[in-house]
Amino acid sequence: MPDQDHRDDPSPRETAALFRNRGGTEGETETERRRRRARFLRELAEARALRDRVQPRRAKAARLRHAMRMRTFRW
């Protein structure tokens, strides 16, 4: 599809490569990095919760698979 060639948002691989190449931002403190990470994790959890609400059958199957894994796991 020609529209996909001109996307504004880079792929996750491109984003990771750009971040690795620049080595983080100069002057970024540990506190800022943690704040940014916490925001990302909150948004990720929100997206997962939304997906579970929108696709309840898939969410139930995932819960059952996880429960089976936990039952068969040996300590």
Describe this structure in words.
With 75 residues, the chain is mainly α. The protein has four helices and no strands. The protein has helices at residues 2-5, 12-22, 30-54, 56-72. The radius of gyration is 19 Å and the shape is elongated. The mean pLDDT is 78.
Major β-sheet profile? none
Specify the helix fraction band.
over 70%
The backbone outline, from C-alpha atoms, is elongated
Reading the helices and strands in chain order gives HHHH
- In whole angstroms, how far apart are the ends? 49 Å
Question: TL;DR?
Answer:
With 75 residues, the protein is mainly α. The protein has helices spanning 2-5, 12-22, 30-54, 56-72.
Secondary-structure map:
Elements: H1 2-5, H2 12-22, H3 30-54, H4 56-72
Helix pairs in contact: 3-4
